[in-house]
Write a structure and sequence with these properties.
Layout (H helix, E strand, L loop, with lengths): L1 E7 L4 E8 L1 H15 L15 H8 L3 H22 L8 E8 L3 E9 L4 E2 L7 E5 L5 H14 L2 E4 L9 E10 L2 E14 L21 E7 L13 E15 L5 H7 L5 H34 L2 E2 L3 H21 L4 H8 L3 H6 L2 H20 L6 H14 L4 H7 L2 H19 L2 E5 L3 E2 L5 E2 L3 E5 L16
Parallel strand pairs: 6-13
Antiparallel strand pairs: 1-2, 2-4, 3-4, 5-12, 7-11, 8-9, 8-11, 10-11, 13-16, 14-15
Helix pairs in contact: 1-3, 4-6, 5-6, 6-10, 7-10, 10-13, 11-12, 11-13
């Protein structure tokens, strides 16, 4: 391979021209002839027995040269990219500029590449951090949820009441025609939960097990499925079973049953501490997000659409994988949500674009400040991943790109660098006034010198 030129085009796309010498092309075309000749019919010869010259006269002199170029392209393209010093972020679009057995081939490849990034300010940035504290009502609410999770479900003999759990079969019709996603069997529905469209659950209240009846509802005007917006619908309902919850008493025995604590007060203290830790991590994360947003806002880069499309596809695939872990496929989910695939994908567009910008900005900071992950840090991360998935470290190393792990760690360290160099205004949470409205509290100045708790999972903001 000989690199001829690398020309910059718009939207961080380059046109790379490179040549393949005649000898290399000849060797590859000879191999292509041996492999492909049996595909061609030549009068007077059995398939695979015709001389090369005869096949080329019938089908074109360059027929095996094209096969040769296709065979050579992956390795030659990779070498050209390396020589050009660019990093492709999308699929290459190749074309043959010239190709002869005597002179070899010249190829031109158009491909989007990682853009050049111009950074704005990233040192001495300012952000506000709210010092939230856990309210007793939040602790009591969590205790209530634990109480609800540990409730016994008992069969109700009579009519269903609000708050009961009904097991139903249902099928929806619009203008007498069943619509996709409108049918379910043995579906558990908590009445009053607001899980279904307005008016649905209310009309089940008062019915008992064994009842079969119709309910009339109207889909909201802003419903996700275009064909159902504002439409009147009839649902045929069969109530299979009605259950209600019997809550356990909130006492020390409850605490012993649901936790490692001996008293209810100890359980509440543990809940309060956990909530406070979450609030502190959330506050740190908000500071981090605000600082990174400022770096992104000050960045200039001509980002190719291929990078955003690639990240969007990763987000969609990740969502689909999580659905599969819950025993559901994407098609079924979209049916329940009344959404088309393109509507669903569009929801990730803004997130994908933001994450691409964040990654580029943080990589640029790491490069500018010469921030890198050490080999010990890489090994520690591999060990963490191995522990998470209950695998041997060597197995993880064999399936994970360690260079990518090293790059991710460098990005995380760049986040820490920005935070360490930032000025943060610590403020008390907004206070409620006499009218119940929250009043802003006056911030106190503090310079961040300490890294955020590792459990705050700073990498998530750079994904």
């Amino acid at each position: 391979m000989n690199l001829i030129s690398c020309d910059k085009l718009e939207k961080s796309t380059v046109a790379i021209q490179f040549s393949i010498d005649a000898e290399t092309l000849a060797d590859a075309s000879a191999k292509a002839f041996k492999r492909e000749s049996k595909k061609y019919s030549v009068p007077g010869f059995r398939k695979g027995k015709a001389p090369r010259g005869m096949i080329e006269r019938m089908y074109g002199e360059d027929i095996f040269l094209y096969d040769a170029v296709n065979d050579l392209f992956p390795a030659e393209y990779e070498a050209a990219v390396k020589a050009a010093g660019v990093e492709p972020v999308g699929q290459p679009q190749p074309e043959v500029v010239s190709m002869t057995a005597a002179d070899g081939a010249v190829l031109k490849v158009t491909v989007p590449v990682k853009p050049e990034v111009t950074l704005g300010d990233y040192v001495g940035l300012k952000a506000e951090k709210t010092a939230n504290t856990v309210e007793q009502s939040a602790v009591e609410a969590e205790i209530g949820r634990m109480q609800d999770r540990n409730a016994r479900q008992l069969t109700r003999e009579g009519a269903a009441e609000n708050g009961d759990i009904v097991n139903i079969d249902f099928e929806g019709f619009v203008d007498g025609v069943a619509f996709e996603g409108g049918k379910g069997e043995k579906f558990d529905l908590t009445l009053g939960s607001g899980s279904f469209i307005p008016g649905f659950e209310e009309q089940i209240v008062g019915h008992k097990a064994g009842d079969e009846f119709d309910i009339e509802v109207k889909f909201p005007d802003d419903y996700a499925a275009e064909e159902l917006k504002g439409k009147a619908a009839t649902f045929k309902i069969k109530v299979n079973e009605v259950k209600y919850k019997e809550l356990p008493a909130l006492d020390d025995d409850f605490a012993k049953d649901v936790s490692e604590y001996d008293t209810l007060d100890e359980l509440k203290d543990s809940i309060r501490k956990g909530m406070q830790d979450n609030l502190d991590r959330a506050a740190d994360q908000e500071v981090e997000n605000a600082l990174v947003d400022q770096v992104v806002d000050g960045m200039k880069a001509d980002i190719p659409q291929a990078m955003i499309d690639s990240r969007l596809e990763e987000l969609v695939q990740d969502f689909e994988y999580r659905l599969q872990q819950q025993g559901m496929n994407l098609k079924t989910y979209l049916g329940y949500m009344g959404m088309e695939l393109e509507q669903f994908r569009a929801q990730f567009t803004e997130q994908a674009e933001k994450q691409v910008k964040m990654r580029l900005a943080l990589e640029a900071v790491a490069a500018r400040e010469k921030i890198e992950a050490t080999e010990d840090e890489v090994e520690a991360e591999l060990a963490r991943i191995a522990d998470m998935y209950k695998m041997e470290v060597d197995k993880v190393r064999s399936i994970i790109d360690t260079a990518a792990v090293k790059a991710d760690l460098a990005v995380n360290k760049a986040i820490d660098f920005i935070k360490e160099k930032a000025e943060v205004m610590t403020k008390a949470p907004a206070q409620k006034g006499d009218d119940g409205e929250k009043k802003p509290a006056k911030p106190k100045k503090r310079v961040v010198k300490k890294k955020a708790d590792a459990e705050a999972e700073a990498p998530k903001s750079a994904e």
